[in-house]
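All the exercises in this workshop are built on plain-text protein records. Sequence and backbone structure share a record, each on its own labelled line. The structure tokens are whole numbers drawn from a learned vocabulary of backbone shapes. The record below serves as our worked example for the rest of this section.
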Amino acid sequence: MRVLQQIFRSPLGVTAALSVALLLGVSVSQISSLMQQNQQVLAFVATPAAQTATAEGADWQQEMTLLGLNTENNPAATSTADSIAMIGQIVIAEMVGQYAGMQDRGSYTAETVQNASANIAANLRANILYKTYSTTDFKTDTDISYDRMLTYRSDLRAALAPLLQNTGSELELYGKYIETADANYLGQLSAAAGNYRAAAEQAAALTIPRDAVNYHKDILNAMEQFSATLDKMATHATDPLASAALLRTFNQAETTMYTSFNALSRYYSQKTP
């Protein structure tokens, strides 16, 4: 847990912090012990089966295959929750392969281990499934006047009222848990996630001016993604490597939130009486 504090205190970011976590959390003795096991094959996937494969996902699966790990034929491991829980095993397995190669080449040094861990960190992902909306999910209004925009803005503010219960930073709550191990902070994090879901659900029931529907869709999807990320962070908070990966997802989800709401603000400002 001490390793994760680096994420909040260092400007190097999540990738660098994960590199430190790998170096400190996976010792040579641990890797050697794993290698001496009876060539046990770990079965897991790095991304949910329902997600469309991307070139990056294919590369990750190829890396796992080259390590002798099975990335197929394991339905029990295809859920997002399972894939996040398997992040630690994925990382250790990758480190096993890297360590074995270094030993064979006689190139094992602190520097080569650090470089290997940085490469692994760069490819690590926490893939999260969340509810998504399309423009056809909303009732729309052909009135796109300034007055209609004002009504929509008022309705949306009312729908987002559950967010007023989130009085602090979600990342600060997570940081306090890391520092104190007080599970109450995780409860607050889960409650915050619930407020984002409730706000999205209420906003989905609104009637939207036709020219605002894409902005509306984007903010709802951003809230759903952020909510799901917070839930996973609370669930996997005791797993340092999964937490590091989820913090990267958190950063992306938070950016998406800001981007979507900023775009909606621009929509408001473009309207004239």
In short: Confidence is low (pLDDT under 50) at residues 1-81. Strands lie at 139-141, 207-209. The two ends are 55 Å apart (CA to CA). The chain has two domains: 5-123, 135-270.
